[in-house]
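Help: read this over?
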Amino acid sequence: MSFYFSAFGMTCEGGVHQKLTKKKKCAIILYMETIMKADIFFFISSVATVLLAVLVSIVLFYFIKAGRNLYLISEKLQENFEESKEFILELKERLEDNIVFRMFFPPARRKKQKEEKKNKK
């Protein structure tokens, strides 16, 4: 197996230019292997980072979409609550005007309750 280092202009293990000692040659080979391993690590981590960013973007997109749907639902519920509040107030007025209701609940009693509620506010 022969390695050629163009930066140094020499080969390792039996090349033409054997200016380096065996110890230095092995150190250079280990250094080059370390650089190759680092390059592989950075490539894999870069790909993983991009994939993670894409997945997070997709999840955020769906969370935003779900949040918007919840907002629209809550707006519709608020409108319906307002309508039901108006309906209940109208029903209360009708009951108070009913003769049978007044027979069981005299008007004097209702006036006192209304005055107490106004004083509390």
